[in-house]
Each structure stands twice: as structure tokens, then as C-alpha cells.
């Protein structure tokens, strides 16, 4: 597959140019109107609603395009937008920038993230069945929050349907690396299949009496240790196929001649078990070159007789998604409407991990680490909104009707990780047995919780007017936002008495830590708290903007404005060395201008030039010294109290050609300057890396994007009458992005960093998408073959002479076929999908060596939906 990667990136942009045949340049106007997968929203000939069209460049993915490409969640769908890449299957990077430089909105309102290490919400928790469309805007305009580096993503949920709709769907999927293969699991509750961990994982009341354990008597301490669920061991179990269910129901009721009310309700559920079996390595440098710091890989077992042959990393994850949405709408008349939207998104994960190999502290000791975890993440949002059109200035030839919208939003994000456990066994060469260590770091039981509440209220208006020969839209608005966050974790371990029995420590943990062995003077429960394991944070932001969109001439359009933000962010924790409170207060006040010129020099051809100033703030947890565990890479993360706000200058230019309905070519250039960009750092903490954050001195990013949409009339070109009414299309886009960040040589991190000048983290040089297929509205049929390429990106900063670590994302080739069949007066939709047809693997490299790799397998899915 390496050959495919290298060849693909070199031909990426060239291939998009070749997709425009001579018929396109002849401006074939006979093509019928159709919906694009990514519709470029501009004011011009093919825009369905010019009055509401933005002056900026936006990509819109609608519900029809989701079905066409077989997208089950928003994160997967956004991979096809030019300049976007998805990390970990859920986090969207715009133009190669990390998630901190992207802003995610739901119906125009910000929403909190249930992930303690991310600023934005993971987009894989949004099923496409609940989304009407998604807007992605990569040039800034003042109506959006100032925290904007790469782009803004606005998710719009479904509201009142045009007519009665009722759908029931079921599906199943299999994966060649997981389904019907041996996986890992541990004892849990029966409610896990629905995503609820059950009361068995709750922290016992005996511990809640005093979580520090300080005031407990020996008898109470014994009771606390015995009250913890005695669940440690991981078993091998065969993974079952994934399953899914979806339910959609909506209707519209007319009230008189002008009014109507309606509702839309949806529930989606899916469950899947996946294996990640492979290896992990880490390196230090020496005079002889790279030296392994740790290695969990198959070849380690070759050095130990009687130790087995299962060295490496084996992880099985069961993911359960359960989501619901209810939307109530009332259309008072053609000019006034109200809508209430409530949404609950739940994602639960059960993780079982076994790592077998060696670590830095004892390279001659073979060890096995077992890790079990359960996390429940939930996002709840309630929004009341209204849209109104009225004549503010009466019947006046100068002023037209004003558009006014408002919203009040309450959101809450929760993330609970109860009963996370680790235990380590070390192989004794002399006795040929594995024995757990009698140390505080050999077994750990932890509970953690994050709560994030957000209140928001705001309004926007657009006042169209005519000043002489100029058509002008005056726009403005105000938003008030208030957030509160709290996070805490408690950690415990079972302490062995001096001279603990070797034979006992050779047994399974359920016997070692059984009630018979927990007693005063025997094995006792002990805490290992860090004073900074808890923090609270608040964020208040007052925002306002004013702008204008002016049609200067028939050919020239100018949009400009100014945004004002006044924010206060407060983070409170405790110094872990002195136990004294630490409060970080960050006040910020910004006036941020933006301007865009659009020049239509030829019919359906236009050039855009844009400039803006934006910022990105440190996240709440990045200003706290409270430690977190990065579940994706198993690393400890700690914030920096001295982080500053990043300031960004954005420059954009784009040529756009809409040569026929549904057909276009766009070519864009962009350049960004960063002051005080926030970057990750690493130091070594014990046997593993400690991840942190610093402000680099400066950074810049520049790139080019090319996109082509073309209808292929193969019936006419090749005489393929068998295609009938099938409309064949090809859509392709490619991006080349180059970045550079500079670390101040005088900073404390400079002494350990291998490279003070490098690319920005998470930024891929090459991005590309190619989609080929057909759609037949008459037959209710669609077919798509989708190829997604994301170039390697910096995932870990090199330290102490070891070079930077890079993630090599898999090249994904997916196939989807959808067909509707009439059964009586109803419709049955059949869908077949294939993912990762090329069989690429997940991979990370360092200095030319593969340091982590696991098999993704190929996934095949079928589904059926009954539409009443």
C-alpha cells in the first residue's frame, strides 16, 4: 500500500483537472438541475435563494448527499469536503489545522464537548438521519464566533417535514478483522448493550463516605476495599456482527390558510465490536542510534521461554450509540415561525486492552498490562428559536423587509468513566510464572467525571436596502454565552503488606483482591491522589457584530464587517506540590475586521478575495494542571497555566466557474499567519511520555485547493443506452497544504525538543477525494465509489534527539449502492456498503520505522428501511 500512497499524492491535483472534458468548457447548458454533494453557496445564477446566500465561500452537504454516499454520521460525510480531514474517525481538521482551529455549531449555537481533551464535539456522534444539512465555511465572516482558524461547521437539524413521514430501518455489518474473530471483553451489566453501564460501576458508598480514605477506621477501610467490584480479568470472546436501528416520524398539520405546525422525531441506535490488534513501540536515542524505550510487539516473546507467543497490543472496543431528537415547529404565517429542538446524543464504549512486552524501567522483564474501561458520553441540547420577516421602516422604497432570527439555547455535555482498571504482571524467568508487582503503580482503580453546561442567547438581522443604484444588506447581531465546567478523578490501589506472599501474587486478580485477602494488616485499599486531580472553570463571552454586503456594480460585490468579543475565562485548581489553590483568569477584548470582494468578470465566472482577523483561545482544561489520560494513545496530559490566546491573519483567494447546473470548477489559494500558536509538547514521565502545551513563537500555513464537479453523459458519448435515466457523475478535489511553526529557542521546551522548526501538528500536506457514481431519480437508485486520501500528519513531537512521530492515515476506498422498491403504496429501501476495500491499516511512523500499527479490516454492511 505504500506505493499507492506515494503515487496518489503526486497525481492528486492533476487528476482533478483531467476530469473536465471538452464538453464542460463548451458550457453545456442542457444539463438538468441537480443537488451536489458539496454545493458551493455563492450569489449567482444557480443559487436557489439569493436573498439568504452568504457572500463567503461555503460547502453544503444535504440529507440527499448523505444517502447517496452512504454516510452514517457527519464525520464520515465531511471527509469529502475539499481541505477537510478526519482524525480518529470523529475529529474534523479544516485545511490541515487541528480541532482547536475549527468551530462547531448546532443550529447556529455553540455546543459543549464531552471529550476532556478536545475543544470541539466529536462529529461521529451526530447521525446523518437527524441532520438536514451541514454548512462548512472556510473564509471568515463576522456573524460567526471569533474562534476561527480553519473554518466553521454548522449542523442544521431537521424541522417540520413537508408531509407525513414514517420510516423504520434495520441493518447489520461485519468486519474481516473483528466479526466472528476472537476479541476481548470482561464481566459487565446486561444494560451495556443499550449503552448504560449500570449501578455495578458506581463508586461504592463506603468510599463516598470519605473519598480520601483518611478518616476511615481500619474496619471501614476494609469494607471500602471489599465494596469495589471484584472485576479485573479479560476473557477472549467471539465478536458478533454489528447492528443498527433507526426510526423517523414526522408530520405537518395545516391550520387555516397561512399557519401550520408539525413535528419531527427520530431515534437511532447502533452497536459494533472492533478489534485493534497490532503492536506499539517507543524510542530513545544513543550513540549507536535509536534504542527501544518500550516495545509491545510479537518478536519480544521470542526472547522468553515459556512466556507464550501473544506479545503485542490487543484491544477490543464495543461502541454503542443511542440518539434521539424531537423538533416542534409552528409556522405562524409566511413571515413568522417558531421552532423548539431537543436532542440527546449518547455514545458509550467498553474497552478491553492487553499489552505484552517490555518497558524502559526494566528492559529485561517481560510484562503484561491489562486495562478495562467503560465511558459514557452524552450531549443534551435544547433550543428555542424563531425566524421573522417584517417591514421595520414601513412601506418605504429605500428599505425592504428585514429578516430577523433569534435563539435561546441550553446545552450540557457529560462524560463519565467509572471503574477504569489497570493491573500489571511481570514474568519471572526463574519460576516461569507471571506475578503481579507489589507496588502502587501495579494496580489502579479510578473514577472520573466531566460536566459541562452552556447557556446562550442571541439574535441576527439582515436589513436589505437600496442606496441609489447600490443594493445593500446591513447585517448585525449579538450573542451572550456562559459556560461552566467541572472535572474530577479519584485513584486508588491495593497496597500489599511487606513480604507479601509470592504464590498469592501469581494468581488471578479476582483471588488476589478477594474479600479473604483484604483486611487490616493484609491487602489494604489506598489512595494516590494528585491535588490537582479536580478543577472547575467558567467562560463568559459577550459578542456583537455589524457588517454590510454591497452590490457595488453588476460585476462587483463587497462584504465587510467588524466583530467585537469581550470574554473572561477562569480556571481553578490546586498546585500539586504545595496544595495551594491556583486560579487562572484570562480576560480578552478584540475588535476583528473581515472583508470579501467578489468580482464576476464573466458570466458564471468569479474571483473572490478575502481577509480577516480571528483568534483561538486555550481550552479550559489546557489552562489547568489537572492530569488527563489520552485514551487514543494512552498518554498522560497536563495543561499550562501560562498559555496565551492565538491571533490569526487569514488571506483567501478563489476562482469559481459554474459552467452548467451542477457542474463547476473552483481553484483556491490561502495563507494564514499565527502569533502564539498553541502546540503540544512532550517530556518523559516515568515509563511514558507526558503531553503538555506551549505557545510557539509563530507559525504560517499556505495551500491550494482544486475542486471539480462534472456530469458525464455517457449515454451520448459512448451510446450506452443501458444506463437509461441514470445520471453519471464524477466529483473530485485535491488540496496541497504546507505549514511551519517556530519554537522560541529560549523557551523551556527548546532544551528537549528535537526540532524547533517543523510542520503544525495534525496538518497533512496532501488531501484528496474522488467520487464516481450515478443517480437515478426515476428508479430510486444510486451508486457511488468513494476514494479518500489523507497524507501523513505530525502526531507526536520528537524529544531528546528522537524525530517527530507521524500518523499515516489509511487510504479509504468505499462503495455504496442504494435501491428503492415499491411494495404496495409503500417503499422499501435497500442499501449495501463496503468500507476500506483496499484493506489499508492504521499506522504511525518515526524515523522511517513503524512504531504503531493495527489492522482495520474490511467492513461490509447491509440495511433495509421501510418507508410508510
UniProtKB/TrEMBL annotation:
<protein>
    <submittedName>
        <fullName>TonB-dependent receptor domain-containing protein</fullName>
    </submittedName>
</protein>
<keyword id="KW-0798">TonB box</keyword>
<feature type="domain" description="TonB-dependent receptor-like beta-barrel">
    <location>
        <begin position="373"/>
        <end position="793"/>
    </location>
</feature>
<dbReference type="InterPro" id="IPR036942">
    <property type="entry name" value="Beta-barrel_TonB_sf"/>
</dbReference>
<keyword id="KW-0675">Receptor</keyword>
<dbReference type="Pfam" id="PF07715">
    <property type="entry name" value="Plug"/>
</dbReference>
<comment type="similarity">
    <text>Belongs to the TonB-dependent receptor family.</text>
</comment>
<keyword id="KW-0472">Membrane</keyword>
<dbReference type="InterPro" id="IPR012910">
    <property type="entry name" value="Plug_dom"/>
</dbReference>
<keyword id="KW-0998">Cell outer membrane</keyword>
<dbReference type="Pfam" id="PF00593">
    <property type="entry name" value="TonB_dep_Rec_b-barrel"/>
</dbReference>
<keyword id="KW-0732">Signal</keyword>
<dbReference type="InterPro" id="IPR000531">
    <property type="entry name" value="Beta-barrel_TonB"/>
</dbReference>
<dbReference type="InterPro" id="IPR037066">
    <property type="entry name" value="Plug_dom_sf"/>
</dbReference>
<feature type="domain" description="TonB-dependent receptor plug">
    <location>
        <begin position="51"/>
        <end position="152"/>
    </location>
</feature>
<feature type="signal peptide">
    <location>
        <begin position="1"/>
        <end position="26"/>
    </location>
</feature>
Amino acid at each position: 500500500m505504500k506505493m499507492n500512497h506515494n503515487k496518489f499524492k503526486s497525481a492528486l491535483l492533476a487528476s482533478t483537472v483531467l476530469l473536465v472534458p471538452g464538453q464542460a468548457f463548451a458550457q453545456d447548458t442542457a444539463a438538468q438541475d441537480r443537488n451536489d454533494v458539496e454545493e458551493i453557496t455563492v450569489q449567482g445564477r444557480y443559487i436557489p435563494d439569493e436573498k439568504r446566500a452568504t457572500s463567503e465561500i461555503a460547502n453544503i452537504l444535504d440529507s440527499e448527499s448523505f444517502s447517496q454516499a452512504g454516510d452514517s454520521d457527519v464525520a464520515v460525510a465531511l471527509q469529502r469536503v475539499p481541505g477537510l480531514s478526519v482524525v480518529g474517525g470523529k475529529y474534523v481538521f479544516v485545511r490541515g489545522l487541528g480541532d482547536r482551529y475549527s468551530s462547531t455549531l448546532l443550529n447556529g449555537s455553540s455546543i459543549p464537548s464531552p471529550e476532556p481533551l478536545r475543544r470541539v464535539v466529536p462529529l461521529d456522534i451526530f447521525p446523518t438521519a437527524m441532520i438536514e444539512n451541514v454548512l462548512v465555511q472556510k473564509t471568515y465572516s463576522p456573524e460567526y464566533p471569533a474562534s476561527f482558524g480553519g473554518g466553521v461547521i454548522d449542523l442544521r437539524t431537521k424541522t417540520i417535514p413537508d408531509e407525513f413521514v414514517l420510516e423504520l430501518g434495520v441493518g447489520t455489518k461485519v468486519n474481516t478483522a473483528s466479526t466472528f474473530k476472537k476479541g476481548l471483553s470482561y464481566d459487565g451489566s446486561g444494560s451495556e448493550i443499550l449503552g448504560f453501564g449500570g449501578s455495578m460501576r458506581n463508586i461504592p458508598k463506603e468510599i463516598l463516605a470519605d473519598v480520601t480514605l483518611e478518616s476511615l477506621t481500619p474496619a471501614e477501610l476494609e469494607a471500602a476495599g471489599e465494596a469495589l467490584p471484584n472485576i479485573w480479568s479479560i476473557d477472549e470472546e467471539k465478536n458478533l456482527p454489528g447492528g443498527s436501528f433507526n426510526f423517523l416520524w414526522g408530520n405537518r398539520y395545516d391550520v387555516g390558510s397561512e399557519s401550520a405546525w408539525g413535528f419531527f422525531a427520530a431515534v437511532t441506535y447502533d452497536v459494533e465490536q472492533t478489534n485493534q490488534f497490532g503492536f506499539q513501540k517507543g524510542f530513545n536515542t544513543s550513540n549507536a542510534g535509536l534504542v527501544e524505550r518500550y516495545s509491545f510487539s510479537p518478536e519480544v516473546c521470542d526472547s522468553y521461554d515459556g512466556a507464550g507467543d501473544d506479545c503485542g497490543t490487543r484491544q477490543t472496543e464495543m461502541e454503542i450509540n443511542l440518539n434521539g431528537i424531537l423538533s416542534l415547529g409552528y409556522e405562524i404565517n409566511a413571515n413568522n415561525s417558531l421552532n423548539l429542538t431537543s436532542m440527546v446524543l449518547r455514545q458509550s464504549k467498553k474497552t478491553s486492552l492487553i499489552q505484552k512486552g517490555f518497558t524502559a524501567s526494566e528492559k529485561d522483564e517481560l510484562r503484561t498490562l491489562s486495562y478495562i474501561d467503560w465511558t459514557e458520553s452524552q450531549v443534551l441540547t435544547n433550543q428555542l428559536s424563531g425566524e421573522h420577516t417584517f417591514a421595520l421602516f414601513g412601506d418605504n422604497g429605500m428599505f425592504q423587509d428585514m429578516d430577523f432570527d433569534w435563539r435561546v439555547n441550553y446545552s450540557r455535555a457529560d462524560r463519565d468513566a467509572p471503574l477504569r482498571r489497570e493491573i500489571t504482571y511481570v514474568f519471572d524467568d526463574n519460576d516461569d510464572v507471571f506475578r503481579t508487582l507489589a507496588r502502587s503503580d501495579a494496580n489502579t482503580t479510578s473514577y472520573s467525571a466531566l460536566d459541562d453546561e452552556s447557556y446562550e442567547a442571541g439574535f441576527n438581522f439582515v436589513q436589505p436596502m437600496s442606496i441609489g443604484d447600490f443594493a445593500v444588506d446591513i447585517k448585525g447581531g449579538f450573542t451572550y454565552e456562559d459556560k461552566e465546567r467541572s472535572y474530577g478523578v479519584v485513584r486508588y490501589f491495593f497496597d500489599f503488606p511487606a513480604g507479601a506472599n509470592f504464590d498469592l501474587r501469581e494468581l488471578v486478580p479476582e483471588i488476589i483482591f478477594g474479600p479473604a485477602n483484604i483486611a487490616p494488616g493484609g491487602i489494604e485499599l489506598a489512595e494516590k491522589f494528585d491535588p490537582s486531580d479536580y478543577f472547575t472553570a467558567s467562560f463568559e463571552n459577550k459578542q456583537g457584530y455589524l457588517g454590510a454586503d454591497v452590490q457595488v456594480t453588476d460585476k462587483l460585490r463587497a462584504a465587510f464587517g467588524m466583530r467585537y468579543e469581550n470574554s473572561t475565562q477562569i480556571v481553578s485548581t490546586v498546585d500539586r506540590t504545595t496544595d495551594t489553590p491556583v486560579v487562572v483568569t484570562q480576560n480578552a477584548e478584540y475588535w476583528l475586521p473581515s472583508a470579501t470582494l467578489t468580482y464576476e468578470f464573466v458570466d458564471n465566472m468569479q474571483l473572490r478575495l478575502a481577509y480577516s482577523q480571528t483568534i483561538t483561545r486555550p481550552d479550559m482544561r489546557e489552562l489547568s494542571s489537572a492530569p488527563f489520560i489520552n485514551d487514543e494513545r494512552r498518554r498522560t496530559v497536563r495543561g499550562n497555566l501560562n498559555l496565551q490566546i492565538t491571533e490569526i491573519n487569514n488571506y483567501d483567494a478563489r476562482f469559481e466557474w459554474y459552467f452548467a447546473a451542477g457542474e463547476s470548477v473552483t481553484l483556491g489559494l490561502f495563507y494564514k499567519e499565527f502569533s502564539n500558536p498553541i502546540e503540544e509538547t512532550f517530556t518523559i514521565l516515568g515509563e511514558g511520555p507526558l503531553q503538555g502545551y506551549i505557545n510557539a513563537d509563530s507559525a504560517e500555513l499556505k495551500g491550494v485547493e482544486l475542486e471539480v464537479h462534472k456530469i458525464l453523459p455517457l449515454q451520448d458519448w459512448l451510446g450506452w443506452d443501458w444506463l437509461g435515466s441514470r445520471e453519471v457523475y464524477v466529483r473530485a478535489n485535491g488540496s496541497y497544504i504546507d505549514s511551519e511553526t517556530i519554537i522560541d529557542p529560549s523557551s523551556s521546551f527548546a532544551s528537549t525538543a528535537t526540532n524547533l522548526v517543523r510542520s503544525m501538528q495534525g496538518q497533512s500536506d496532501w488531501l484528496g477525494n474522488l467520487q464516481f457514481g450515478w443517480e437515478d431519480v426515476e428508479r430510486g437508485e444510486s451508486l457511488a465509489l468513494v476514494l479518500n486520501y489523507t497524507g501523513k500528519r505530525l502526531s507526536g513531537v520528537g524529544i531528546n534527539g528522537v524525530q517527530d512521530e507521524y500518523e499515516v492515515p489509511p487510504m479509504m476506498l468505499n462503495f455504496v449502492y442504494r435501491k428503492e422498491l415499491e411494495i404496495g403504496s409503500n417503499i422499501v429501501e435497500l442499501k449495501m456498503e463496503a468500507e476500506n476495500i483496499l484493506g489499508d491499516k492504521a499506522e504511525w511512523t518515526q524515523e522511517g520505522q513503524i512504531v504503531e500499527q493495527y489492522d482495520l479490516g474490511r467492513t461490509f454492511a447491509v440495511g433495509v428501511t421501510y418507508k410508510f
